[in-house]
């Protein structure tokens, strides 16, 4: 399943791919894709890793589940394929971005442009069955993505983690905060944003300020 993952990640995650849970997960995902319509496409399951190699990581954003509607998910959290209407959370991300950095509301919801600059857009679960939210949870993906976060925390320094909402905060609990920068806020979903827990977090400008201070290239959001 991971044969198409970027070589840098193959090295970092080599021992993970040999563990029994990962073999079970591979078997489960293969069966699901053979028997049902699942998202994202098979060749996009590891898109987050292929657009952002281990060496390139500057920022990590943690999502939960891929979108489960037709043609939405493309392997990057919160991102949708070109030409697809923006889901509510993505709309709120772009509204905050517009307000924070005074830039035009983006015309494309495809966040490959962020990933290519070193933003790892990591969902906790990398696959889902069509129209069945959470259908691939608790099958091994969470163990795998926990390992990814742990490897980044252990092997890198000064990565900026953006934890949006309770789920992401829990997922990022083991990040070494002495070595990395962790910014937390509410989830961009309407439920949270409408309660005043999302807007005004300024995570995009804060991230670029930290990158600038570290002498790294800022993200063109």
Write up this protein:
The longest helix is centred in the first third of the chain and has 16 residues, at 20-35. The protein is built from ten helices and six strands; from the N terminus they run αααβαβααββαβαβαα. It is an alpha/beta fold. Helix 8 (166-171) links the parallel strand 5 and strand 6. Its main location: cytoplasm. Belongs to the uracil-DNA glycosylase (UDG) superfamily. UNG family. This is Uracil-DNA glycosylase. It is an enzyme of class 3 (hydrolase).
Radius of gyration, taken over Cα atoms and rounded to an integer in Å:
17 Å
Distance between the termini: 31 Å
How many strand segments?
6
The share of residues in extended strands comes to 5-15%
SSE string, helix = H, strand = E?
Answer: HHHEHEHHEEHEHEHH
Main beta-sheet annotation: 4 strands, parallel
Fraction of residues in H or I helices? 25-40%
Mean pLDDT: 97
Q: Uncertain spans, ≥5 residues at pLDDT below 50? A: none
Helix tally equals: 10
Q: What structural category do the secondary elements indicate?
A: alpha/beta
Strand order of the largest sheet: 3-2-5-6
Outline: globular
Domain Uracil-DNA glycosylase-like: 50-211
InterPro entries: UDG_fam1, Ura-DNA_Glyclase_AS, Uracil-DNA_glycosylase-like, Uracil-DNA_glycosylase-like_sf
Protein name: Uracil-DNA glycosylase
Active site: 65 (proton acceptor)
């Amino acid at each position: 399943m991971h044969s198409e993952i970027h070589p840098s990640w193959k090295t970092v995650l080599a021992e993970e791919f040999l563990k029994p849970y990962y073999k079970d997960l591979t078997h489960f995902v293969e069966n699901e894709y053979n028997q049902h319509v699942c998202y994202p496409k098979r060749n996009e399951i590891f898109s987050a890793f292929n657009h952002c190699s281990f060496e390139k990581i500057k920022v990590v954003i943690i999502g939960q589940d891929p979108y489960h509607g037709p043609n939405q998910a493309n392997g990057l959290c919160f991102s949708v394929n070109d030409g697809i209407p923006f889901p509510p959370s993505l709309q709120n991300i772009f509204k905050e971005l517009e307000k924070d950095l005074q830039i035009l509301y983006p015309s494309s919801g495809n966040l490959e442009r962020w990933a290519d600059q070193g933003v790892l857009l990591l969902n906790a679960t990398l696959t889902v069955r069509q129209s069945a939210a959470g259908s691939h949870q608790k099958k091994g993906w969470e163990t795998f993505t926990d390992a990814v976060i742990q490897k980044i925390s252990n092997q890198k320094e000064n990565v900026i983690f953006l934890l949006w909402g309770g789920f992401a905060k829990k997922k990022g609990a083991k990040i070494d905060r002495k070595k990395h920068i962790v910014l937390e806020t509410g989830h961009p979903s309407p439920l949270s944003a409408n309660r005043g827990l999302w807007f005004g977090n300024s995570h995009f400008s804060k991230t670029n300020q930290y990158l600038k201070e570290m002498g790294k290239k800022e993200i063109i959001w």
